[in-house]
Amino acid sequence: QVQLVESGGGLVQTGGSLRLHCAASGRTFSSYYMGWFRQAPGKEREFVAAISWTGASIKYADPVKGRFAISIDNVKTTAYLQMNSLKPEDTAVYYCAVAGGIKVGQSWLTPQYYDYWGQGSQVTVSP
């Protein structure tokens, strides 16, 4: 089992920045990927960014490329999502997630790939 605790959300004006933290505990030595997803009211959960446990592979969703940066400290078992130049359309609940193993034939950019989820952190960007 892996437990995830998120922090760092809040209210910010357009153009501002926030940094989300995701602290993992438990059987993290068997984790392969950490991802960030978001869900706005009335919408499906969508991919934001993901990183391999070693940090060697990183992916971003097109709407956040150039504005968001994902990183991982696998000694502290903490992942970060630095969000810059925030826009009102970034408003959502942000979730971190951990995939506990390789799932052949599935994309690590989808929520279904991930086994463990944080509680969610609200990010609100005002116009």
What does this molecule look like?
The strands form 2 sheets. Strands 2, 4, 5, 6, 9, 10 and 11 form a 7-stranded mixed β-sheet that branches. A 4-stranded antiparallel β-sheet has the order 1-3-8-7, with no helix packed on it. It is globular and about 40 Å long. It has strands at 2-7, 10-13, 18-26, 33-39, 46-52, 58-60, 68-73, 78-83, 92-99, 116-117, 121-126. The protein is mainly β. A hairpin with a 4-residue loop joins strand 7 (68-73) and strand 8 (78-83).
List the helices and strands and how they pair.
Layout (H helix, E strand, L loop, with lengths): L1 E6 L2 E4 L4 E9 L6 E7 L6 E7 L5 E3 L7 E6 L4 E6 L8 E8 L16 E2 L3 E6 L1
Parallel strand pairs: 2-11
Antiparallel strand pairs: 1-3, 3-8, 4-5, 4-9, 5-6, 7-8, 9-10, 9-11
| Secondary structure category | mainly beta
Cα(first) to Cα(last) distance is 40 Å
| Percent in helix | under 10%
Kindly state the mean pLDDT as a whole number?
A: 92
The number of helical runs is 0
Task: Bin the strand percentage.
Answer: over 45%
Main β-sheet, in a few words? 7 strands, mixed
- Secondary-structure element series: EEEEEEEEEEE
Task: Write out key terms for the chains shown.
single chain; mainly beta; four-stranded antiparallel beta sheet; 11 strands
Briefly characterize the structure.
By secondary structure, the protein is mainly β.
